[in-house]
Amino acid sequence: ELEDLNETMVEQIDHLLKQKHEVLTSRDELVRLVDKLQDELDHAGVKMETQGKQIKEAEAQSEVIQELENKLASKNKVLRDLELNKNEMMVKLSEVQSELERRTSDYETSIGNCKDLSEQLQTLNTELSNNQQIMRKQNEDYQGKVAALNTTQIKLGESQDLILRWVFCILQNRG
Asked: What is the pLDDT of residues 96-138, one digit of tens each?
């Protein structure tokens, strides 16, 4: 009977050690996931900073376009004031219009880039929110595993107490 009891105790202890190992493994996984999430948050911060710089550059380009448009208006006035001949005026007007179209195209491209950056930022915010939800869920799972381990440790203590009482009774009966 003692050998059976000893085998039972060894099995229970092995089972409890396995449960402890599972809890520790789960905790290590949670720590890795938290580190990974922090890396993703850092990477998202760098992206947001880069996007902010790109938006400022687009605004600076908009100011350059405005300055060019002002210069165009001034040149047109000068052209009218000087009353250049028709062929000369048409050539210069064509050149200015080409520049304006090119700059307008650049401006529209910049605006499109800003919209793309805004969409990327929204996507990153969504991913960040999803990662936070995953982290909360994993934390809840971890807390559940810790509670299970605590319950198992209490049961182990109760089992050890019962075994010691039983062994004590056997020893008293032999004595």
From this structure: 899 989 989 988 998 888 898 899 989 999 999 999 999 999 9
Alpha-carbon span 155 to 150, nearest angstrom: 9
The three-point CA angle 155-157-158 to 5° equals 65
Distance CA 85, CA 167 (A): 121
pTM (whole model) above 0.85: no
Alpha-carbon span 112 to 146, nearest angstrom: 51
The predicted structure's pLDDT at residue 122: 93
Helices and strands, counts by H and E, the chain: 2, 0
Model confidence pLDDT, tens digit, residues 53-79: 988 998 999 899 899 999 989 988 876
Whole-number Å distance between alpha carbons of 103 and 44: 32
Query: DSSP letters along 47-116, please?
Result: HHHHHHHHHHHHHHHHHHHHHHHHHHHHHHHHHHHHT--HHHHHHHHHHHHHHHHHHHHHHHHHHHHHHH
Residue 85 in this model has a pLDDT that exceeds 70: no
* Distance (Å, whole) CA 152 – CA 49: 49
Residue among 143, 138, 125 nearest 29 (CA): 138
User: Do residues 138 and 33 lie in contact, with contact meaning Cβ atoms separated by under 8 Å?
Assistant: yes
